[in-house]
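Much of our argument rests on the idea that a fold can be written as discrete symbols. This step matters because it turns folding into a mapping between discrete strings. The record that follows shows the chain in one-letter code together with its fold in token form.
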Amino acid sequence: MNIHTEADIASLGGRLEQAARTRCPLRAVGATSAVAAKVAVETGFDALWVSGLEVSTALGLPDENVLGPRDLADTVRALARTAPLPVIVDVDNAGGQIATARRFADDLAHAGAAALCLEDSAYPKANSFALHRTQQLTPVALMREQLTAMRTITGDEMLLIARTEALICGMGLNEAMERAASYVAAGADAVLIHSKDTSGDQALAIGAAWTSAAPLVTVPTAFPHLEPDQLGEAGFALAIYANQLSRAALAAMRQAAASFAATGSFTSGGTPLSEVADLLQVADPTARACL
């Protein structure tokens, strides 16, 4: 069983700083199961991202602050069993309170998370790309107090990434930068200024405007045409591909099921299927199967 150590967590911080210096970003991918974690290891990702959206969806829940720390901690433990990669956990607004932020930090530290990402959305949060609900911002002072409370719990044994939804909420770049700088002053190790601008111009402007020594993180869901090398040159130390594996899995499952519905077979129509042994070996690398 792979259990993350303090050295692993310190290594993530050092690697982020190196990525910022060399302009060669680390790449994290969303994973909610050991299967996804195995794929991430096989394909060379640097870290795993436990996405609030992905975990909520896997549990049949809306992405609206319904998850508790135990839901996330169980996911972290499942990933740690199979993947020797640092796990970054999306805690959304950590329940919108100082006491709940402490609870999230404590439970996830014990589960083995290497980093937590706290955002300044008001409770209850809305998904950043939702059209049916509107995201609101929490007061800067509350976000700072949450960060301080989480740091009190974790000490230096966990990285804290502060995420601002200011641009998502229609604020200007200056407001987003001010919020981000305030969160660094409150103890955040890195900053994520989220953007839903599909051109990618806003993301590039973020990179150009950020002058703090704190590493800059991005989630390029809205601008997938900006490749990691471009993001690194723009100043980002970490690119998080937050939900692509879940979306790919959903598309593949639909394709396989549609092929079966049309032909009565899961093996006709060119639908790719992994071997049974592949599934067995996710949890037991020594397992063998006749199929």
Observations:
- The chain has a mean pLDDT of 94.
- The longest helix spans residues 244-263.
- Strands lie at 26-30, 47-50, 87-90, 115-119, 159-164, 190-193, 216-218, 238-241.
